[in-house]
Amino acid sequence: MSMKMPGTPLNRTLAAVQVVVLAVVMFAPIAWMVLASFKNRVDITKYPPTLAFTPTLDNYRALFVRTDFLDNTLNSFYVAAGSTLLGLLLAVPAAYAISWHRTVWPATLTLFARMAPGTLFLLPWFIMFSALKLQGTLTALIITHAVITLPIALWTMLPHFDALPRELTESAQIDGCRGAAILWRIALPVVLPGLVVATILSFIFSWNYFLFALVLSGFDSKTAIVASFNFIGEGVTNWGTLMAAATVIALPPIVLTFLIQRRLVAGLSFGSVKG
């Protein structure tokens, strides 16, 4: 019985079929969502669904003209950017120190915040922010979302700092460079690809997080992903506007992923191939 080698036409055909099937499974819902955002209510609910329809921008007009969704989207940017910056400011020095001292337990502790259910934090945070008069503010959301971004940034940066030659930092110490200066002037430029990956991942995770923003946001600090649920009612759902909102919410993560896909894959696989 002969075995087909990986380079044979049959295996190449099977690989191509697998790629096509995966692409359909992954992108068909996204394509349906985008197309539905340009359909009227009749075309969206038509059964069986059809690809032939007259595009309309009414859903986007209703989204941005009749609602505060633009402000909600800006709130999402503020929260995601602020929590990413806060998470990086805490995670990067921590990752460098953990890598330098070869101490893993502090990094493991940060995982508890990701493994624990989000509802565990809600009541203490609600009480704390209410006492501090921060309930319903963007500041509260930025601080809470940093709990998401910090572990992501920390564990993304660790393998990059582990691969940093100790001779490089030791030479800087001999030359009189100390403490934070070594991190910012010597280490960070070398691990910049990892920093980019940590930034993008932190931003995406914060952008898509729903629970904390649902409970801790106020009318003026409501994020886009929370505001999108206003289009879901008990009796009727405004599918066109909901799909338009979902498209706007999905756009930044998709664009960022495509822009840095090569660097993202390299950064995520860095720890598994170094040695």
Short description:
With 275 residues, the protein is mainly α. It has 15 helices and no strands.
Main sheet, how many strands, which sense, barrel?
A: none
Number of domains: 1
The whole-number mean of residue pLDDT values reads: 85
CATH class: Mainly Alpha
Helicity, as a percent range:
over 70%
What does the overall shape look like?
A: globular
Gyration radius over CA: 23 Å
The number of distinct β-strands equals 0
The CATH homologous superfamily: MetI-like
What's the N-to-C terminus distance? 39 Å
Low-confidence residue ranges: 1-5, 271-275
Number of contiguous helices: 15
Q: Could you please say which CATH topology applies here?
A: MetI-like fold
Strand content: under 5%
CATH-level-2 architecture: Orthogonal Bundle
Helix-strand category: mainly alpha
Order of helices and strands: HHHHHHHHHHHHHHH
